Amino acid sequence: MKRALIGLLALGMGLSLAQQAPLKIGVVVSATGPAASLGIPERNTLVILEEQVNRRGGVAGRPVQFIIIDDASDTTQAVRATRKLIQEDGVLAIIGTTTTPASLGMIDPAAEAGIPVISLAANLEIVAPVDEKRRWIFKTPQTEQQMSTPIVQDMKANGVKTAAYIGFNDAYGEGWAKAFEAAAKEAGITVVASERFARTDTSVTGQILRILSRNPDAVLIGGSGTAPVLPQRTLKERGYKGLIYQTHGVANPDFLRVGGDNVIGTRLPAGPILVFDQLPSSFPNKNVAQSYVQQYEAKYGIGSYSTFGGHAYDAWAILRPALERALKKEQTSNLAAFRKVLRDEIEATKGVVGTHGIFTMSPTDHLGLKFQEAAVMVEVVKGESGKLEWKLVRTFR
């Protein structure tokens, strides 16, 4: 009898939730195309979160519906998806997208509509300066400026005097070139070569030969996903013996799978979630990262998690309490007014512990991460089992 009563109560709660109008959140990710290794874990994470949130009663008693669109790693499709979510689906906010160029493309339609967006891409220009357009835009990944610091510190500790750079020929690569060159100059490291390649290139031999002619002590590859394996493999094939660095854009299992032995020894800055199990117990977001990884691996398999799914998790960690606060102040039926209130509540975020750090936003800071809590230095090593692994080199706290 008791079990039957509990079952009826649970059924009643489920029916009550189902009868409520859903809180529609738009999601744009790169689940296919060159950035798929980043966008897939972002999409998967939000699928987990939607199931989990609604199973526990939704937000303020209302179900959450993530309307997920794949932009195929294409800026035009990302902009088209943004307009559809705003104009046809009437979403309250948007999470996404995966890549820097596409996230930059989404700024104008979001600002025109007056809808808050939490980007999952790295470039600082997505959120800075916080002008009339970018007041609607927030993000969760660390910036190139933040992640250049650990790279340069590590180079200096390893006696690097000269370095070369090769990066994507788009906003992501240019942002990294600018940030790295500034950090290197301040540290007394001379950048002797700066090259570019396309995400879809199949050869970078010319660029690598020009870099090798300058004989740099280290090379930084400014790319994301699996595409940065190409210049690293070419460097190895041409006999380069110096240090090779990558950005946090490669912190995913597919980079190890595609790179194989060519990426052993790679050093890169990453969000602490990448090596959560190697962090000291005092690290502030270790427990959150561990909990997320356990949830993700329970659904998608051991070793399947990446830092990019963590960015999506963190976006929801910021958005959910902002939604709860906004719902106390405005009705979602008044869509324009609610979006404005929600924007204000996201900007009011304080002390939200995510998988990558602790987020505290302000009117001039729409990321809100401190470098010391949001970055660690890692190295790719071959473990005892023969599989490639991420090894924690140092933290910066």
Briefly characterize the structure.
By secondary structure, the protein is α/β, with parallel strands linked by helices. The chain has two domains: 219 residues, Response regulator (Rossmann fold, 3-Layer(aba) Sandwich), CATH 3.40.50; 149 residues, Rossmann fold (3-Layer(aba) Sandwich). Helices cover 44% and strands 18% of the residues.
Describe the structure.
With 397 residues, the protein is α/β, with parallel strands linked by helices. Helix content is 44%, strand content 18%. The protein has 13 helices and 14 strands. The chain has a five-stranded parallel beta sheet, sandwiched between helices. A four-stranded parallel beta sheet has the order 7-6-8-9, with helices on both faces. A three-stranded antiparallel beta sheet has the order 10-13-14. A hairpin with a 5-residue loop joins strand 13 (376-382) and strand 14 (388-395).
